[in-house]
Design goal:
The complex is a heterodimer.
Chain A (H helix, E strand, L loop, with lengths): L2 H16 L3 H23 E3 L7 H9 L5 H44 L4 H39 L1 H15 L6 H10 L1 H7 L6 H10 L9 H15 L2 H32 L21 H36 L1 E2 L2 E2 H15 L4 H9 L7 H12 L8 H12 L3 H12 L5 H11 L2 H28 L4
Chain B lengths: L4 H4 L1 H7 L9 E7 L5 H9 L3 E5 L6 E9 L2 E7 L11 H12 L4 E7 L3 H14 L3 E6 L1 H6 L2 E3 L1 H8 L3 E3 L8 H12 L14 H18 L5 H9 L3 H11 L3 H7 L7 E2 L1
Parallel strand pairs in B: 1-4, 1-5, 5-6, 6-8
Antiparallel strand pairs in B: 2-3, 2-9, 3-4
Helix pairs in contact in B: 2-12, 9-10
Classes of the chains: A mainly alpha, B alpha/beta.
């Protein structure tokens, strides 16, 4: 007797009985079970006071309605960014004043000790200054943004976001849970890639993995927020500028989601063909967030962690960039030579060679892209004390000829370029196939270059710059 | 090549699932939807006597614990939280395979008292596989706060299985749950679960297929349930039956040793 083979024969017989339409049977069975549950629950559960119970359902009906769901999502996103941008300015200026005061004292110390000039350059003007930059530019937005995001998570809003986006992902041929891995990507793309494990189908997991990089992570948010604040806020009056910057950042995130959907759609119709599988998403009840715990958790877990990682990488990178900017090859510095090589391509993309070089040198961690860029602008020639946003604006616009197009393309490229080293390493570990890892780097980079080039070409043809 | 009880029976399958069977130990499965406080029930019953690892050949987390009650040792297997047993995900597959082939002495289905309707779906599906079911209506305190009243007696009568209301976080109802587990596991109480009746065409097809299934699988599997899955065209189940019931079982056992390391909590 052989039960396996016997049952297999019966499966054939069952197919003959159902006439090759097992789905009809399945639907009948599922419906009967649901009906039975409803009937049992109806007979045994009673409400003494019915109104209060469905308050969650009523809120859900608004937050996940086809009409209001997306506008509310955009509004919530915008409020979070507005609070972040307008709240980050003041502490940012304060921190930079303090830290650059310390830089002067350090310089005096080195002079007093008669230390060699190159040592002072590497340690103070390279390592310390980029560290100061990371702290003063990145810390305030992070310290405001993460607690706000965690509060939304704690209150139960994020699952509703996933629910709203589910329809879009289905249409793109991807899995609805990708919305959740995407939300995770806001925290850290490497974490987002690991979160892709919740998707069972290998095809859909790959789509989610390859497109996770299109949501700006921890490391890229401050760069985007700083640049948006710089260009939007600088162009109009202060009060209006904050709103404009908010709108820019929120639009950029929406743009990132749109790119995610477009690339997912493209992948599921080319190299990763297949139909999306269904899943159950439970909407947990709304809860009053535990504010104290959220503050502690997001400051300790996220802000300090990310800042620590950035600082560990930023200090050596700063030293390296200072060396590159001060070691000369023939007539120009190593940095200028490297940037010069990249310049023609970068110009096509609306950037300049230094910006592209900063993105390449920023491969270990996206947090250090902006500090590297500022180092390479500052280290070479005029020693400008770049403190607050206003001084930063002066450095970029007046001294290095940035236009609104440069700012826009830099921000777009920050959103769409290769993932950081950690994320790539994680993808390799999860997929165990270097081809997918390579593709995970090539796809976003190609998309970013394409968009930047198109925008630049359009702006130039239309004489907008 | 003979099918001895040793190679195909309960013990072989339990070996695959890595459940220690030391003579008089009783095996209790814990099933339930996610977010029903299933883990709270698990922790409340087992305390610190827990092992965690992976289900053999799967990346699904597996927790097992034990407790002593009225002179007997009980092994509690925490199945992954699922909404159904259609084997659409690896969690559902693990839960289904254990209920189907692991032959637990009793199965506790933990349900969220505040949304009973949704949770009963799983309970009804479990009751189709195994008769020895206890429904634990958890979060009863939350249901009370939401001004809901659940008629436990009537629910138990309608389902044909014991129903125990609990609030596991506060320990409410746990003594009753333990006693009910003992009664069902030792066979002092035999639940008579109601079966969901399907539309006529389905029932007719089942009637034709069920005797043939029984001929092949005997008492080891629930013939009605297998017949229903065959009608749905469930190829995965056929593969699972091959894996767990076929000769060469011992060989499979070697391949299915757990992927994760056992950690004592």
């Amino acid at each position: 007797m052989n039960p396996g083979a016997g049952v297999e024969n019966l499966l054939k017989e069952a197919q003959a009985i159902t006439g090759g339409q097992p789905e009809v049977i399945r639907d009948n069975i599922v419906k009967s079970i649901y009906d039975a549950s409803a009937q049992l629950a109806g007979a045994t559960v009673s409400y003494t006071w019915g109104e209060r119970v469905d308050r969650d359902r009523q809120i859900d009906n608004i937050l996940t309605s086809p009409l209001w769901g997306f506008p509310i999502m955009f509004a919530v996103l915008a409020v979070v960014f507005w609070v972040t941008i307008s709240g980050a300015n003041y502490p940012s200026a304060f921190l930079s004043t303090q830290l650059f005061w310390l830089q002067d004292r350090l310089n005096e110390l080195f002079w007093a000790l008669h230390a060699p000039e190159w040592l002072r350059g590497v340690l103070v003007m390279g390592a310390y200054r980029s560290l100061a930059w990371v702290v003063s530019v990145m810390l305030p937005p992070m310290a405001i943004f993460f607690p706000l995001f965690t509060l939304l998570e704690d209150a139960g809003y994020l699952p509703r976001v996933a629910f709203n986006l589910d329809r879009c992902f289905k249409k793109a041929g991807a899995h609805g849970k990708q919305a959740l891995t995407m939300c995770m990507g806001f925290g850290c793309n490497a974490a987002g890639v690991i979160a892709c494990r919740i998707i069972d189908s290998p095809r859909e997991r790959l789509i989610a993995t390859l497109t996770n990089n299109f949501v700006p992570c921890n490391g890229r948010f401050p760069t985007i927020i700083a640049l948006a604040g710089l260009f939007a806020a600088g162009s109009v009056s202060v009060s209006l500028g904050g709103l404009l910057a908010t709108f820019c950042v929120a639009s950029l995130v929406v743009f990132g989601v749109a790119v995610t959907l477009a690339v997912s759609w493209f992948l599921s119709r080319t190299i990763l063909k297949g139909t999306p599988s269904s899943f159950t998403l439970e909407l947990p009840p709304y809860r009053k967030p535990q504010v104290g715990q959220v503050l502690v958790r997001s400051i300790l877990d996220r802000t300090i962690f990310v800042l620590g990682r950035a600082a560990v990488l930023a200090a050596p990178a700063g030293g390296l960039v200072w060396l590159m900017a001060n070691i000369t090859l023939g007539h120009s510095t190593v940095l200028a030579v490297a940037a010069g090589y990249l310049d023609p391509l970068a110009r096509l993309m609306g950037l300049d060679g230094f910006i592209l070089l900063a993105f390449i040198l920023g491969l270990p961690a996206n947090e250090i892209v902006l500090p590297i860029l500022l180092m390479s602008y500052l280290a070479g020639g005029a020693m400008v004390e770049a403190g607050s946003l206003a001084e930063l604006r002066n450095l970029l616009v007046v001294q290095h000829g940035w236009t609104w197009l440069t700012g826009l393309c830099t921000v777009i490229f920050a959103l769409c370029h290769w993932p950081c080293g950690t994320t790539l390493f994680t993808i390799q570990r999860e997929q165990k196939n270097w081809r997918w890892t390579l593709l995970a780097a090539v796809i976003p980079a190609a998309v970013g270059m394409l968009i930047c080039m198109t925008v630049t070409a359009l702006a130039r043809v239309l004489h907008l710059v | 090549m003979g099918l001895t009880r040793q190679s195909t029976g309960r013990s072989a399958v339990r070996e695959i699932f890595n459940v220690a069977e030391a003579g008089h130990e009783l095996v209790i499965a814990l099933a339930g939807n996610p977010n029903t406080g299933k883990s709270t029930v698990f922790n409340a019953l087992t305390g610190l006597r827990q092992h965690t690892g992976n289900w053999p050949g799967k990346t699904v987390l597996r927790a097992e614990g034990s407790f002593r009650y009225a002179g007997r040792k009980y092994n509690l297997i925490d199945l992954p939280g699922t909404y159904s047993l259609y084997a659409a995900s690896s969690e559902e597959e693990v839960a289904r395979d254990f209920l189907c082939f692991g032959n637990p002495d009793a199965t506790v289905v933990v349900a969220d008292g505040t949304c009973l309707e949704r949770n009963l779906n799983l309970a009804l599906q479990v009751m189709e596989i195994t008769g020895k079911v206890i429904l634990c209506v958890n979060l009863i305190d939350e249901a009370r706060r939401k001004k809901m009243h659940i008629n436990v007696r009537q629910l138990s009568l309608a389902l044909g299985v014991p129903v125990v209301p609990t609030a596991a976080r506060g320990g409410e109802g746990l003594p009753e749950l333990l006693e009910t587990i003992r009664e069902v596991a030792l066979g002092l109480v035999t639940p008579q679960p109601i079966l969901v009746r399907y539309p006529a065409p389905v029932e007719e097809a089942v009637a034709r297929l069920e005797p043939k299934v029984r001929e092949i699988t005997g008492k080891r599997l629930n013939a009605r349930w297998v017949a229903l899955r065959l009608l749905e065209g469930d190829v995965g189940l056929v593969q699972a039956i091959r894996r767990y019931c076929e000769e060469g079982c011992e060989h499979q056992t070697l391949q299915l040793t757990p992927a994760g390391t056992e950690v004592t909590v």
